[in-house]
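Lab notes, practical 5.
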Amino acid sequence: MTKAQLKAGLEYGPLVLFLLGYALLKDKTLTLGGVTYSGFILTTAIFVVLQAAATVALWRVTGKLSVMQVLTLVVVLFMGGLTVWFNDPEFIKMKPTIIYLFFAGLLGLGLLRGQSWLKLVMGEALPMQEAGWMILTRRMCFFFLAMAALNELVWRNVSDGAWLTFKVVGLTVAMFAFLLSQAKLLQKYGTAKD
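Output from the prediction step:
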C-alpha cells in the first residue's frame, strides 16, 4: 500500500465505516444506566473514536495535518460528543453544515479584504493568476454556502439512513463534480510551474 493510498484510507475510512456500522446497527438499541441508545447514536460514538484514531494515524504517517483535517476532527469530537451525550442524532447531522459555513465564512472574509485565502492553502499545488484565484474563491464560497443549505434541507427531511448515504456519497460526489467543473477556469488562468 502506497503512502497516498494509506492517507486516503485514513481520511475516508471512518466515513465508510460509519455507513457500514449504521447498516449493521440501525435496528439495534443499547441500554446503559437506564438510557436507551439507538443504532445511529451507537454508530456515532464509534465514528468519533475512529475519526480521532484515523487523524492521529494520519499525523503519524504524514507528519502534518491540514486545516480541514484538524477542523473536521474538532467538529466531529464536539458534535459527535453532543450527539452521544444528549442522545440526539441532530447534532452530528449539523456537522457538515457547520464545516461548510465555516469555510464559506473564512473565504468570504478573505474576499472582503480583497484576498484569496484559498490561494494561501492551494497556491503551491495549483499555480494560477491572481484573477483566477479570486474567481475560484468566490465560486468555492458560494459552493460551500449551497452545500450547507443542502445538508440542512436533506437532514431535516429524510431518514437517518438516507441522510447518511447523502453525507457519505452525495456530498463527496458533489465536491468532486464542483472541482471538475472548474477545469476551464484552471485552464484559462493557470500558470506554468517551473
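Observations recorded by the TA: The beta strands are 29-32, 35-38. The chain is about 75% helix and 5% strand.
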